[in-house]
Write a structure and sequence with these properties.
The protein has about 325 residues and is α+β, with helices and mostly antiparallel strands. It is built from six helices and 14 strands. Helix 3 packs across helix 4.
Length: about 325
């Protein structure tokens, strides 16, 4: 080929460098745009502040529209919730069960290990009664059992001797029967002594008072060295009949005196919402658990109880609460 033509087809070195610089610039721009997009795509806490400020400064109309839409949505949700309510009344939070621990026999309080407000567990020892008399009765019963065992052993030996002699016709049939009956009587006395020992141990065990539930102490009704009895014999100055009062703080109800005009709006198992007056922002689910079978004629009311699901520390017994009865 002609050397002149080849020379005309060659690209100058300066033009090659210019093209390379242009390609690098393009790549740099693309990389910068990609990095900016990734930066904006990653959420950050300050983005909310920037968006709020931008909406406030540059787009006030859009921010106002968003705020009005949010308020309208909240109002609509509240209206829908109110539409489910058929009745709203007030009542008092109560423990479903109040347990008062009483002694099984007359005794003196030796020790009491709880005070008002303490948490107790099932089986925890809370009160000890004086057990001096019961321990003495246990020792007496143990001695009676030992004596009865000796009597049984003697009766068995006598019976064996008489039985051997009766086989050789040395003793009469009457002597053999008497020995057999004495052995049976000794065994019966042993059973009686063992039963008395078991009873003495039961009375000794009753001097230890344990909590029957996991709960909290509502009241401490006695003090050490105080006399207690299992039942009242009348009068206000007699011995105490209860030691402590307990309740389960996770088993709460709302007690309501319902006007007879509203009775048709309520039924067993009906869904409810409970809100304590002390914490109106707290709402708990519940249901109608009990409707009294008899009304109060003087008040013209009927008592019912609403069981609270999943109560917590914000629900305090004897404080008031508002109850919303919901539709089916």
């Amino acid at each position: 080929m002609d050397p002149e033509k080849l020379k005309s087809l060659q690209i100058e070195a300066s033009r090659k460098r210019a093209r390379r610089r242009a390609a690098r610039v393009i790549f740099a721009v693309v990389a910068g745009v990609t990095a900016l997009v990734l930066y904006l795509a990653v959420p950050r806490p300050q983005d909310k502040v920037r968006v709020a400020q931008a909406g406030k400064n540059s787009q006030p109309a859009l921010a106002g529209a968003i705020e009005r839409g949010t308020n309208n949505l909240a109002q609509n949700q509240h209206a829908n919730t109110d539409n489910d309510i058929v009745l709203t009344v007030s009542g008092y939070i109560i423990n479903r069960e109040r347990i008062e621990l009483s002694p099984r026999f007359l005794g003196v309080v030796k020790w009491i290990g709880v005070k008002k407000g303490d948490t107790v567990t099932n089986g925890q020892v809370v009160v000890l009664l004086d057990d001096t008399e019961q321990r003495a009765r246990v020792r007496e019963a143990e001695a009676a059992v030992a004596a009865a065992k000796v009597a049984v052993a003697k009766a068995e030996l006598d019976y064996q001797r008489v039985a051997e002699l009766a086989q050789k016709d040395v003793e009469s049939r009457k002597a053999f029967d008497d020995a057999r009956l004495q052995l049976e009587a000794a065994r019966a006395q042993l059973m009686q002594a063992e039963a008395a020992l078991e009873l003495a141990k039961v009375y000794l065990d009753w001097t230890v008072i344990r909590s029957p539930i996991d709960g909290v102490v509502l009241e401490r009704l006695v003090e050490p060295n105080e006399l207690v009895v299992p039942q009242s014999f009348g009068g206000t100055r007699g011995p105490s009949t209860a030691l402590i009062a307990l309740a389960d703080p996770k088993d709460l109800q709302v007690e309501i005196d319902l006007n007879e005009a509203d009775l048709s709006k309520v039924y067993l198992g009906q869904r409810c919402r409970v809100s304590p007056e002390a914490y109106p922002d707290k709402v708990y689910a519940g249901y109608v658990a009990e409707i009294a079978p008899e009304a109060n004629r003087q008040k013209g009311t009927l008592q019912l109880k609403v069981q609270i699901r999943d109560p917590d520390k914000y629900l305090t017994p004897e404080l008031s609460a508002r109850v919303d009865f919901l539709t089916k």
